[in-house]
Amino acid sequence: MGASKLLPTLTRIAEALDRLAPAAIKVSDLSDADAYVWHTDPMGLEPVERVNRVDFDLLRGIPSQKEQLLENTKRFANGLPANNALLWGAKGTGKSSIVKAVHGRINADAPGSLKLVEIHREDIPTLPNLLSILKKSNKQCVLFCDDLSFDTQDDAYKSLKAVLEGGIEGRPDNVIFYATSNRRHLMARDMIENERSTAINPSEAIEENVSLSDRFGLWLGFHNCNQETYFDMIRGYVEAYNLGVNEAEWKPKAVEWTVTRGARSGRVAWQFVQDLAGSLGKHLK
C-alpha cells in the first residue's frame, strides 16, 4: 500500500485513540474564586462565584460546634496543625451550613486566605487526582464532602481511608477534610453486621469499618433542637432581615409549621422564615 493510501487509515486510528484516551485534567491555581466544585467528567475544578451560605452569627443552637469548628479551621488557615472533622447527626441541624459559614467568616477576616472545595460523594474514588491539584496550589484548602456515607458492596471508603492518613504520602499539608453525615460511623448498621457475619474474624471486620471515622480527629454531633432554640433561630432571622413582624404574630405559625414537618431544626426554621417573608412580601437579602 502506498504512503498516500496509508495516511487516511493512520489518521483515523490516531483519532480513535484520542477519543479513547482519558480527558486531561483541567488544572487551576485556585486564584479565580474562594470556593470550587470538583467535577469528574471532565476532571476539573469549577469556580463558585457566590457560595450559598447562612451568616455565621445567624446559626443558633449550636454554640459549641461553631466554636470548635471555627477554632480548628482558623488554626489550619494559619498553617498550624488541625484535624479532619466529621459533623454527624440529624438532618437539617446545620452540619453543612456551619462548614460554609466558618469558611465565610475566616475569609471575611482575612480575604482569600482559605479555599473551600466541594467533592460529591460519588466522586470519592477520584480523590487522589483532586489532591494532586490542591497540593500544587499552595493554598490552604478545606476539602468538603456533604452527606457522606457508605452502603453494602461499596468499597469507596477504602480510598477515602487511605487518602485521609493511611497512604504513603498522607494528606497534603495544605488540605484538610471536612465531611457531614447522618451516620456517626459513616456506614449503615446492616453493612457493619454483614461484614461481621462473613468475616473470618468478626471483631477485625468491625474495627476495619469503624476505623474510617477514627481518621477524623474532630467529631461534632448535631441533634434536633428544643422549641425555645427553634424560636431563637427564627427570631434571629426576623431581626437580621428586618421582616417587621412581632413575635405574637409569628410564634403560633412557627409552632404549626413544626407540627406539619414533624421536627424542629435549623432547616425547618429557615423554611418557615422563607414562607413568612414571602407572605409578607419581603425579600431575604
Which features characterize this protein?
single chain, alpha/beta, 7-stranded mixed β-sheet, 48% helix
N-C termini distance: 72 Å
Q: Tally the beta strands.
A: 7
Looking across the biggest beta sheet, what order are the strands in? 2-1-4-5-6-3-7
Secondary-structure-based class equals alpha/beta
- Tell me roughly what share of residues is in helical segments: 40-55%
The averaged pLDDT comes out at 83
Instruction: Output the radius of gyration.
Output: 23 Å
Strand content: 5-15%
Largest sheet: 7 strands, mixed
Shape: globular
Task: Describe this protein's structure.
- The chain has helices at 3-20, 63-77, 95-109, 127-137, 156-166, 189-198, 202-214, 227-240, 247-261, 266-280; strands at residues 35-40, 43-47, 85-89, 115-118, 141-145, 175-181, 218-222.
- The protein is an alpha/beta fold.
- The protein has a 7-stranded mixed sheet with strand order 2-1-4-5-6-3-7.
- Helix 6 runs antiparallel to helix 7 (202-214) and helix 8 crosses helix 9.
- The chain starts with a helix and ends in a 5-residue tail after the last helix.
- The mean pLDDT is 83.
